[in-house]
Design goal:
The chain is an alpha+beta fold. It has 5 domains: 84 residues, GIY-YIG endonuclease (3-Layer(aba) Sandwich); 144 residues, no CATH class; 103 residues, no CATH class; 151 residues, Nucleotidyltransferase, domain 5 (2-Layer Sandwich), CATH 3.30.420.340; 49 residues, no CATH class. Helix content is 46%, strand content 18%. The protein has 19 helices and 19 strands. Strands 13, 14, 15, 16, 17, 18 and 19 form a 7-stranded mixed sheet that branches. A 5-stranded mixed sheet has the order 10-9-8-11-12, sandwiched between helices. The radius of gyration is 38 Å and the shape is elongated.
Length: 618
Amino acid sequence: MPTFAGEEEPAMPANDRLKDIISHLPHKPGIYKFFDDHQIIYVGKAVDIRKRVSSYFNKSNQHNKKTLKLISNIRNIEFTIVDTESDAFLLENSLIKQHQPKYNILLKDGKTYPYICITNERFPRVISTRNKIADGSKYFGPYASITAMNVLLEMVRSLYPLRTCTYNLSPENIAKGKFKVCLEYHIGNCKGPCEDLIDEESYNLHIQQIRSILSGNLGTAKNYFKDKMMEAAQEMQYELAHSFKQKLDILEDFQAKSTVVSNTLTNIDVFSITSNEKCAFVNYLKVVNGSIIQTQSLEIQKKLDETDEEILASMVVQLRHEFESDSKEILVNIELTLPLDGLTITVPQIGDKRKLLNLSLKNAMYLRKEKESMNEKAKDTNEVRIMETMKKDLKLAELPKHIECFDNSNFQGDNPVASMVCFRNAKASKKDYRHFNIKTVVGPDDFASMYEIVTRRYRRLLDEGTPLPQLIIIDGGKGQLGMAVKALKDLGIYGRMAVVGIAKRLEEIFYPGDTLPLYIDKKSESLRLIQRIRNEAHRFAITFHRSKRDAGTLKTEITEVKGLGKATADKLLAKFKSVKKIRELSEGELTAEIGKSKARILLEYFGNQTNRSAPAAI
């Protein structure tokens, strides 16, 4: 399959180069690769390469932030043509695994899963290994759970006495008597092939049964031990019969724990997915003869806000490859189309297969719940740490779980307002935010305004019996802090909570009665939180002040238009809210609202205002 790339043209601007590359892309199935300045950052598949790649650049207003970031980093595009959509799908997954691009979801945890290996030698050993070597040995796995693998390995070793030594047990070496039996023979864990105490045919019969067990078929071994038990019982060798009965019980107990729904189910792969905004959680069950022989649950971080269908399709291919599955039937919990020949993909609704799928989904949901719980605990720990730091930095008596911050806003004394923002457990509690219209102060007096709003706020809390905050922050220096303290003293609650002021210029923290400010480390989490609270209070106050000022300006301006009348002005303001929107209305729209003659009066007024505000030529 030939690979084509955009030619390097240093003189051509990046956007023009990409447009040129896209214009030469083929209308054929294949894969495309996006590069930044150094490496592959994304691999995708397409039925029509040019259409798919063009969609990134032609529909930018429909993309989310993550996709827009990907597009902004693209410096070059390469593509590979393939024969079918199926080939494109497989090649895409292969390239993702090889290059691990930053914007593709993929399995890249670096884990090496263990196998159970039946060695390719005379009198084979059954061992665990992480290195799969093409030496003729038979490998089973890989196993996602080491515990599950060890349970299976332990069961095999308890059923069959196998050698564990690494001797070369060739007929010549055994005939020469090179080896002696070890402790494993004396305690009954080995039959002593090193001294020819078991023939190769009997030993290999055990190996054959172990292969069946590891393949998920316990029937052969169960029948063998059942026959042996009956033979021993008929010959009145009751101790031997009992030992075979114990081995049969081990197999049946293992099968009872492993069989999920029905032993009539054959070779099936089961996949389920559930997701939240940031991650997807996928569970995979590999089922043989009704028994789960492999299971894996994964958390997948979303890179480009991929859909569940996109993520699951990718995981099906990657996990089947990882766990070497050749099953032709796949069960999933969402509708899924994979362009792969010979696969049957279904969403079962009833019966044993549905029960099996529900088990898989239950595992995926458990992983999601566990991860989300861990994230919430991490957030809570973060918040407690920040509050502990603030308590220490500000020398507070108690943890500042409830913080309130006040700020004033006015323009040359006009429309004075104030705001109070509330933070609980280091997070903004917007439902508790409050605006204040200054009622008792005339002119630009920030000190008196602060006294008024602090008094009003905490008189109300006292009247309602609402708990007081642990910390009050005043956006301002000593003067405003002093007025806030006076308000608290007049209410009789000074000393029941901490109160500090923060001055903007040097980020100084002032305490009541202390002439010297406190300087907190600029990198401190507590200072960053104080700044965030202060900035939020300032934003909230400014927004309120602007809306109030604009409303006052509009009412004055519209009602002063001669020939318009107050009722007409109020009607327009009630409907369009701002003079800006009224100015943007066409003559026809205005006529429909207030009539032709009044519409002309208003348009004439706006025209005169525009001419008057135009700068004089110098």
